[in-house]
Amino acid sequence: MSSTNPPKVDVPVLKDLNIDNITDNVKLINGQCPDPRLKYVLERLTQHLHDFARETRLSHEEWMTGLQFLTKVGQTCTDVRQEFILLSDIFGLSLLVDSIDHPKPPPSTEGTVLGPFHSHEAEPQTNGSTISHDPDGEPCLVLCTLKNTAGEPVEGVKIDIWETDSHGFYDVQYPGREGPDQRAVMTSDAQGVFWFKAIVPVPYPIPHDGPVGQLLKKLKRHWYRPAHVHFMFEKEGYDHLITALYLRGDPYETSDAVFGVKDSLLIDLGTVTPEQAKQYGMKEGSRLISYDFVLVSKEESDRLREKNATEAMQKLGRNMKMYNGLPVPDVD
Question: Where do transmembrane segments lie in this chain (predicted)?
C-alpha cells in the first residue's frame, strides 16, 4: 500500500503532548486493546514507567544508558545462558513473580527462583542413578519423598534436578562439553520416593562477565549463591513447583545474589547410616540430603492466588474482577 494513501484508522485524537498529559494519552490509545488483561498490564506499566521518569527527572543520557544496557543484556543471551532471567533474579523480580503466581499454603513446599541454567537436555534416570560424574565432588546420597497436603504419596511426578559441579559451574558453562551432567529427569515411585547419587553442592558465582555482572559491581554487590540443588516438579492436577534445597550455614545463606533462600528450604547435611549404606549402595559415613517435599493441588493454589489478588486489589482501593484467574478493572 502506498505511503501517500494511508489506511483510515479509528483511534483517539492525540495532540499537544507534554509532561503532564503524555501518560494519559498513551493509556488512551493503548486502551483499545480487546484483551482486558493485556490492556490492564500495559496501562499499569505505562503509568509506573512514566512516573519513574518524572520522579527521578530522568535525563536523556540516563535513558540512553538504560537502553544500551538492555541491548547488551539481550546480546549476551544464548541457547544456554539467559541473561534476562539473571537480570530479573538480581532485582528480586523472579522470586516475587513466582510467589505471586504460585502461592504455596502450609504445609506445601515453598518455591524459589528457576535461575538461568535450567536445561531441557537432562536425560531420564531411574532411582539410584548417579547424576554427577565429577571426580572431585564429595559423594552425596539424596533421598526424598513426595506427598500431597493430605500426607499421601504422589506417584508419577516428573522431577527435574540440576546442580553445579564441585568447582561451581554448570555443565552448560563448559565449551566443548560432550553432554549433560549434574542433572537428570526422574519420576517418583508408588511410595512417592525418588533418590539418586550426586555430590555435595557448593557455593558458586552467577555469571558476572556480562552486563548483569557489571551492574552488580557498580552496586558494590557480590555475585555468589549459597550451595544448593535445584528441583522442579510437574504432574497434572498439581501446581507447578520450582524450588531448591540450600545448605544451612553457607557463607552466602543470608546474602544470596538472586534472593532465592527461604528458611523452609534450608537443610542440614546428614550422614549415611550403616543401614542406608547397605540399602542404597553408598559408603557408610557419606553425606546425605533428605527432604520430604509436599505438593499442593492446582485447584488449591489457583484459589489462593485469586484470594491473594482480591485482597491486594482491595488494599489498593481498586474495583477489580477476575479474568482467567487474574485481576482486571471491573468496568461493567
Answer: none
Give DSSP secondary structure letters for 4-63.
TSPPP-------S--TTTHHHHHHHHHTT-S-HHHHHHHHHHHHHHHHHHHHHT--HHHH
Owner of C-alpha cell 522470586: 95
Q: What whole-number distance in Å separates Cα of residue 182 and Cα of residue 67?
A: 36
Residues 232 and 275 in one domain: yes
Pair 21, 95 in one domain: no
The CATH number covering residue 137 comes to 2.60.130.10
Q: What are phi and psi of 98, to 5 degrees?
A: -65, -40
Residue 309 domain boundaries: 303-331
For the chain, the first-to-last Cα distance in angstroms comes to 39
Give how many domains the chain has, as a whole number.
3
Count each helix (H run) and each strand (E run) in the chain, helices first.
8, 13
Strands, E, within 90-227: which ranges? Answer: 139-148, 158-162, 183-187, 193-199, 204-205, 224-225
Mean pLDDT, 10 residues at a time, the chain of 332 residues: 69 86 94 95 98 98 98 94 94 96 95 91 95 96 98 98 96 88 97 98 96 98 98 98 98 97 98 97 97 97 96 95 94 72
Rg (C-alpha) for the chain, rounded Å, is 24
pTM (global) more than 0.85: yes
Cα gap 287→281, rounded to integer Å? 13
Cα 189 from chain centre: 26
H helical segments located in 240-294: 274-280
Q: Is 19 exposed, middle or buried (0-12, 13-18, 19+ CB in 10 A)?
A: exposed
In 83-236, beta strands by DSSP E: 139-148, 158-162, 183-187, 193-199, 204-205, 224-225, 228-234
